[in-house]
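Data availability (excerpt). All sequences and predicted token strings are deposited with the supplementary files. A representative entry, Brix domain-containing protein, is shown inline so that the format can be inspected without opening the archive.
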Amino acid sequence: MGRRKKGRCVKKNKQINSEESPDVIKAPHSFVIHRGLHTGEHIVELTKDFRKIMEPFTATSLKERKKNTIKDFISVASVFHITHMCIFTRTAQGMYFKLCRLPRGPTLTFKIHSFSLSRDVISLLKKQMVYEELFKNSPLVILNNFSGEGMQLKLIASMFQNMFPTINLTSVNLSTIRRCLSLNYNSISKTIDIRHYAIKVVPIDVSKGVKKLIQAKIPNLSKCEDFSDFLAKGTISESEAEDDPSSHVTLPQTLSSRGNHANNKSAIKIFELGPRLTIELIKVEDGVLDGEVLFHEYIHKSEEEKQLIKKKREAKRKLKEKRKKIQEENKKKKELQKQEHKEKSLKGMQKKKENEILLQKIAKESVMENNIEDDDIQYYRDEIGEEPDKDLFERKVGEKRPKSISKCKVKKQKLDKS
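Structure token line:
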């Protein structure tokens, strides 16, 4: 038989203990999952679209089952360097988005007012710009209008910023910034609009024909009598971004895209990738989904109620520790009982084995004695020619056996010839 080939899953699987660079280990990683009994097709697809935003430092092929709990994901988070967990849930009241900082919190709970999937957003665009190179680097996070009053706004801003690797302005490579994530806070409705875009940089002040040559596109010369006519065409912008002076920038370094050289002017164009989300902060908890409520948009409690809730939580925590301690003591007792039972079993087995050996020895001796008696009787018959008396070879219990009769000389009686 030939050697069995490795399957597709084995080839694509990356070992956990493989060597990784320090930058990858230090970068924020995330789990994006959905929970609840009322999950439908849309929330599953929205979860997959949000994973595209979080790439490349997220579990894109995470297989989650209904029997998995939040504790299961938290228990393996440290192995995969997970720092954030995004949870989409659905109840009878609506859809919610929970953002958790692992391993000690806090947890932000948002209500999803509206959303659009990536496939719906892309289908509305005239020009689509989706390719795999976009998702090899993390997006640029753009926050707008988060400088208002309230600690919750600062917390939201810091949470979303820390979900992605930091950018060093002095050493960043502009060619790696190909996506951006925009978060706009509406102070009137207290909602946050989340948008996801792809970034494209195109050179300006260049004729359309020259731009095609720069971008390695085959020009159409059917309407030109000479090649100079093609090059002499006026500059025609392909989009509003090229005509808008606010989108023009002077590049500090050369980009990987064609025609974008250092100290030259270029225009920045964006293409929406989706998904779209409009969310509102509802609750802030200390801890991962089970801590003290630090902020709530709709429910406000007095200081007495807060103290009462704090006492109940403290009593619950102490009861949990007490039960855990009792459980550990019971576990130790069971281990001791198990060890004692094991020792007793070993002693009993050893004693049983000794008894068996003794019985085998006694049985062997009795068999040997019976064989000796049979030999003596047969010898007597052969020498004397008569049957021996019954009491001749029998011995009482505890009496030592005399020397074998085979060693004694028996004289034959001479018969008178007269």
